[in-house]
Design a protein that fits this description.
- By secondary structure, the chain is an alpha/beta fold.
- It is 43% helix and 12% strand.
- It has a six-stranded antiparallel β-sheet with strand order 5-6-11-8-9-10. Strands 16-13-15-14-17-18 form a six-stranded antiparallel β-sheet, with helices on both faces. A four-stranded mixed β-sheet has the order 1-2-4-3.
Length: 970
């Protein structure tokens, strides 16, 4: 991508060795960019990335690195906030292929797994195999993308660590490869060769085991006094486990070594019984200090979890995803989530009542309630789990950073620590957004450092040093679960004596005498001020079509485009395979480059490393990462940090294709509204041609797939017939029906149905069928034309009234709602935006106003359009159907795979169908043929037709229209 990223001539030997060994090492610009970052403040470009498929791939890669003196870094989900998943040399990403759950054994309560297994996958598989009797306990907020290997690397904990402790509490054995090529198994009582016939590994296991015993013997006093003092003492190496009284547990001593000692290739993990009944109790306080003062009382009730957040995170969630994204919170400005569990639901509920009574007597509780409703519980836990991303770009408009996001103290010291910590923030002019594991005394605090300027980095340096000294004064640990990495390793001498620091160094060298593994962390560390990702970004003005929050960008001291593409902080929710819609392309390919995060990293390196702005806009690496982006907009809702990749893709393509020949699909599909003006005049001829063998030739010439049956084009007369009763209203309209190009060109019967439903609510209906929102030009990055068309549409719609504008096609509604103000930047666009309603949103308002349809079905299956999901709220369709009285809603929560032009393009058809398999295809498979399928989006309706040609989908307007349909989409 750029010279600073691809400067690899000094590492050509390792690449040659890897190739000779048959190991594929990837070194493209976008690959290097994606793996230069994790979820920390740091950026360290690797030489290459390897995706091992077997232990032998790891052994061969290790040999190549050893022979050439090249560093090696292990990586799972890449969600480290301390910088321990990045480094120079070769990065091993285990998540892509080495992700097998080899066995789950209920009798022994163990699981045998690869290092790339995602934690939530192991939990689900364990509960499936055991009928819900057992589960895997560690559940960090990143559990739906974090891996076993990563959790072993930093000793991850999670929301229920009060009950279940750290990952080290759940490890039995770990298989590793050392830098000298030995394959060893670390156990609860020592070391052995993984293969007993491997003579070298047998010898190495014996020698290393004896050396580790001697290390423990030489440091008995310091290990006993300084290590393992509090529940969350994760900083440094966990060498207390080598003590005789702890059974010489080498497996536990390896947990938390952050890939600096050996490479994990397999593990046997413990499983635990799952409680049959659980109840969330939510508690509100005036501030986090008051909340912390009640922790000791709460712990008397043996909770499974005690988590906390402050109101800044809640405010951000509501700003980004709507007021109903957080349900069930009590009054207060700081909140604790307490999970109580047991075998009897009545006993658990009674215990919850006693807890609230005790806390009320303490005098600090503002409000408290048991949250029995499962929907409310889900939204509350989602706020907590998305804390890192939500707090990075809070509703205040500021930016906050990691760096001091993982300190821990004993729970009884937490209130005093937080009180002193707030004073320290004030002394340095900083604000901290707080959340974390209050019950374990571990705080995740994101702080408003300015890491872009020299002055801000000086404040960061001084504050971090002072914060380390403060937590140590309170008897705490620099890290409580994230590890030390690049963020805290240099501060370990503040916490430990020279004797223990020396022992750490000896321990590491016993495992890795060559110093190849994850250099810069724990021992001989890099300075925590080095390699900051926000340092050294050229100060340039990237002119954009979209207005990208310029006020906030100015406050952050960054160009709006630069700040926008830096929204991604690497938490990696886009790598999850369940929950929400983001990111359909990653879910289809499993490739980091096809995730929202991977694309963001390519864009971030573009603004950093391009020699000029023009060179940046022409980046082939960025274009390649954006190729499979469906522009579904789901990330703008699902990403906790608010990344909007659809907008970034449109903006980038608008510049990339300046002076270049665009793909034919940008003309055939991007200009579709123009072609529809012609096809509506000669639709019989067009349909005849497309139905003939010539149709595939025409499709291929236009860059379209020949695997889809083209929809029939409608005639202009069909639309006139449907809208004739509403052509000349005698009185001013109470509501305006916006008839988009897709509806006009392919399904005018939906326009008639929508108008009749609106009329049935008692409203006078006006119709606007001449304006175009410019959506197809936006999605293909033809923004000059898009702005012209959108400007004309806004001028037409801005009629001086406040009448709601109901848009039939959800994607066009989203364009007028969100894109118009950002592209045009005018007061008129803002006025029109406030009036826009998707049809489902309007239905909910009509029902709330007292309208009742004559009849609705008892059950429906619904495919919510991604643009409606992201712009009007994830539950907009479900809320409308609930208001209508539809009792059973089977929602396909995921992208349909067509996404406007994407699924019609020849080179995207296969991915489009893989995306459909994520949610829509399974939903259709379990839908009886007599149950209506709702697909308000035209592209969604086309995908339904592709998956099930005999099934007709309906627009919500057609479902509610009492007139028999006059036609249907072919």
């Amino acid at each position: 991508m750029t010279q600073d990223v691809l400067s690899t001539p000094g590492h050509a030997p390792v690449l040659a060795r890897l190739e000779a060994a048959g190991v594929l090492a990837e070194e493209s610009g976008h690959r290097i960019a994606a793996y230069s970052y994790d979820a920390s403040n740091y950026r360290v470009p690797p030489v290459a990335v390897v995706f091992p498929q077997s232990v032998q791939d790891v052994v061969r890669t290790m040999a190549a690195c050893r022979e050439t003196g090249t560093p090696l870094v292990s990586r799972g989900g890449g969600t480290s906030m301390a910088g321990n998943a990045i480094g120079p040399g070769v990065v091993l990403d285990f998540s892509r292929y080495m992700n097998r759950i080899i066995s789950v054994d209920e009798a022994t309560k163990t699981a045998d797994v690869d290092p790339g297994v995602v934690l939530s996958h192991l939990t689900l598989e364990t509960e499936r195999v055991t009928g819900g009797r057992l589960t895997f306990a560690p559940d960090p907020s990143s559990k739906n993308r974090a891996t076993i290997g990563g959790s072993l690397g930093n000793d991850a904990c999670g929301n229920h660590s009060v009950r279940y402790g750290r990952t080290s509490d759940h490890v039995l054995e770990i298989d590793v490869v050392t830098s000298d090529g030995a394959q060893l198994t670390a156990t609860a009582t020592g070391l052995r060769a993984t293969d007993p016939t491997d003579a070298f590994s047998v010898s190495r296991a014996f020698e290393l085991g004896e050396s580790l015993k001697q290390l423990a013997q030489d440091n008995l006093a310091s290990f006993r006094v300084e290590l393992g003092r509090i529940q969350r003492q994760v900083s440094g190496y966990h060498l207390r486990n080598l003590l005789p009284e702890n059974g010489f547990n080498v497996a536990r001593a390896l947990v938390g070594t952050e890939g600096t000692c050996a490479v994990v290739v397999r593990a046997r993990m413990k499983l635990v019984p799952k409680a049959s009944s659980a109840l969330l109790v939510c508690l509100g306080y005036a501030d986090v200090v008051d909340a912390a003062k009640d922790i000791e009382t709460i712990l008397e009730f043996s909770p499974a979890a005690v988590e906390g957040i402050d109101e800044a995170i809640v405010d951000t969630m509501r700003m980004r995803r709507g007021p109903d994204s957080v349900l069930g919170l009590p009054e207060g400005q700081a909140f604790l989530y307490v999970d109580l569990d047991g075998d009897n639901p009545e006993d658990v509920a009674a215990e919850a009542d006693r807890l609230i009574e005790r806390l009320s007597a303490n005098g600090r509780l503002v409000d408290g309630r048991a949250v029995a409703d499962t929907t409310e519980r889900a939204t509350l836990w989602r706020v907590r789990e998305d804390g890192a991303g939500l707090s990075s770009r809070p509703a205040s408009g500021k930016e906050s950073q990691a760096g001091w996001e993982d300190s821990a103290v004993a729970p009884q010291n937490l209130a005093a620590y937080l009180a002193d910590f707030r004073e320290l923030l004030d002394e340095h002019g900083l604000t901290g957004i707080m959340y974390g594991h209050f019950g374990a005394g571990c705080m995740h605090i994101r702080i408003t450092y300015d890491l872009r300027s020299d002055e801000g980095r000086t404040v960061f340096s001084k504050f971090t040093q002072a914060a380390a000294e403060l937590v140590v004064r309170h008897g705490g640990s620099l890290s409580g679960e994230h590890g030390d990495g690049r963020a805290r390793s240099a501060l370990l001498p503040v916490m430990y004596s020279p004797e223990v620091i020396a022992a750490f160094g000896t321990y590491r060298k016993l495992w890795d005498s060559a110093g190849l593994l994850n250099p810069g962390s724990i021992t001989e560390p890099d300075a925590f001020e080095d390699n900051l990702a926000l340092e050294g970004i050229p100060d340039r003005e990237w002119r954009t079509h979209f207005e990208l929050r310029p006020v906030e960008a100015a406050a952050a001291g960054a160009d709006p485009w630069v700040r926008a593409v830096q929204s991604c902080i690497g938490v990696g929710r886009c790598r999850s395979d369940a929950g929400g819609v983001m990111c359909p392309s990653y879910r289809a390919t499993g490739d980091e480059k096809d995730s929202t995060r991977g694309r963001s990293r390519a864009l971030q390196d573009m603004v950093r490393g391009a020699k000029s702005i023009d060179e940046g806009w022409k980046s082939e690496d960025v274009r390649e990462t954006l190729d499979l982006c469906l522009a579904c907009k789901a990330c703008s809702n699902d990403c906790p940090a608010g990344v909007d990749m659809a907008t970034y893709k449109s903006e980038f393509f608008s510049h990339y294709y300046e002076g270049k020949l665009r793909p034919m699909s940008h003309f055939s599909l991007g200009w579709l509204p123009r072609w529809l003006k012609l096809t509506t005049l000669i639709s019989p001829l067009v349909n005849l041609v497309l139905a003939s063998p010539l149709g595939k030739v025409v499709a291929a010439a236009g860059g379209l797939t020949t695997h889809r049956k083209m929809p029939k084009f409608a005639s202009r007369a069909m639309l006139r017939k449907e809208l004739a009763p509403y052509a000349n209203p005698s009185t001013p309209a109470d509501a305006v029906l916006f008839v988009d190009s897709f509806t006009k060109g392919f399904r005018p019967e939906v326009a008639g149905a929508a108008a009749r439903v609106m009329e049935s609510t008692g409203r006078t209906v006006g119709c606007e069928s001449d304006a175009c929102c410019g959506l197809t030009w936006i999605s293909t990055g033809q923004l000059d034309t898009a702005k012209k068309l959108m400007g004309k549409a806004v001028a037409t719609l801005d009629d001086g009234t406040d009448a709601p504008i109901v848009v039939i096609e959800p994607s066009c509604a989203a364009a007028l709602k969100k894109d118009a103000p950002e592209l045009l930047g005018t007061a008129a666009a803002e006025r029109v935006s406030h009036r826009i309603r998707s049809f489902a949103e309007a239905v909910k308002e009509w029902v709330d106003d007292g309208w009742t349809p004559s009849a609705v079905p008892a059950a429906v299956t619904v495919q919510t359009h991604c643009h409606e999901y992201s712009t009007f709220g994830a539950t907009v369709q479900r809320k409308a159907l609930a208001a209508l009285g539809v009792a059973n809603v089977n929602e396909a929560t995921g992208c349909c795979g067509v996404a406007g032009n994407f699924g019609f393009e020849a080179n995207h058809y296969d991915i489009s169908m893989k995306v459909a398999e994520q949610a829509l295809a399974p939903a259709l498979a379990k839908t009886a043929f007599d149950v209506p399928v709702l697909a308000d989006g035209f592209s969604c309706a086309m995908q339904v037709k592709q998956l099930d040609p005999d099934r007709k989908s309906l627009h919500l307007a057609e479902l509610l229209d009492q007139r028999p349909p006059s036609g249907e989409m072919q």
